[in-house]
C-alpha cells in the first residue's frame, strides 16, 4: 500500500462537477492498493498517517500530529501510484489491485482512519473520474510504502 500524504490548509474532491468532500486543515492522502496488501498494512499505515508529526508547533517546528491539531483527512484512491515506468513511455499498472480486491481494502482503510482519528473522513469514489483540489501547506508531501516498514 502506497500513500502520498500532503499537509493541506484545504482540499476537496469533485465528481461530475459536484463536490463530494471538502476539508480544511489536515491531510489529503492518495492511496494506492496492490494485491499483496493485507489488514496489517491498513492497521500500520492508518496509525502512521494519523500520528505523523508534520504540523508546526508554537516554535514552527513540525512536531504536532493530525490529532494534536484536530485536523481532517481527505482519502482518495489512486491506482496510478503503482505505475511501472521501467519499459517504454506508457506506464503499466499490473501491480495495482483490481477493483474486486481494492474496493474492500479502500473501505477498510476508511474505517481504520476514522477509528484512529475519532471522526468521519472525507473520501473520493473508487474508480470515478475525480477532480482533486488542494492547497499544499508548506509544501509538505510525504510518500509512505507499507512494504518498507520492515
TrEMBL record:
<keyword id="KW-0378">Hydrolase</keyword>
<keyword id="KW-0694">RNA-binding</keyword>
<feature type="short sequence motif" description="Gly-cisPro motif, important for rejection of L-amino acids">
    <location>
        <begin position="138"/>
        <end position="139"/>
    </location>
</feature>
<dbReference type="InterPro" id="IPR003732">
    <property type="entry name" value="Daa-tRNA_deacyls_DTD"/>
</dbReference>
<keyword id="KW-0963">Cytoplasm</keyword>
<keyword id="KW-0820">tRNA-binding</keyword>
<dbReference type="Pfam" id="PF02580">
    <property type="entry name" value="Tyr_Deacylase"/>
</dbReference>
<comment type="function">
    <text>An aminoacyl-tRNA editing enzyme that deacylates mischarged D-aminoacyl-tRNAs. Also deacylates mischarged glycyl-tRNA(Ala), protecting cells against glycine mischarging by AlaRS. Acts via tRNA-based rather than protein-based catalysis; rejects L-amino acids rather than detecting D-amino acids in the active site. By recycling D-aminoacyl-tRNA to D-amino acids and free tRNA molecules, this enzyme counteracts the toxicity associated with the formation of D-aminoacyl-tRNA entities in vivo and helps enforce protein L-homochirality.</text>
</comment>
<protein>
    <recommendedName>
        <fullName>D-aminoacyl-tRNA deacylase</fullName>
        <ecNumber>3.1.1.96</ecNumber>
        <ecNumber>3.1.1.-</ecNumber>
    </recommendedName>
</protein>
<dbReference type="InterPro" id="IPR023509">
    <property type="entry name" value="DTD-like_sf"/>
</dbReference>
<comment type="similarity">
    <text>Belongs to the DTD family.</text>
</comment>
<comment type="subunit">
    <text>Homodimer.</text>
</comment>
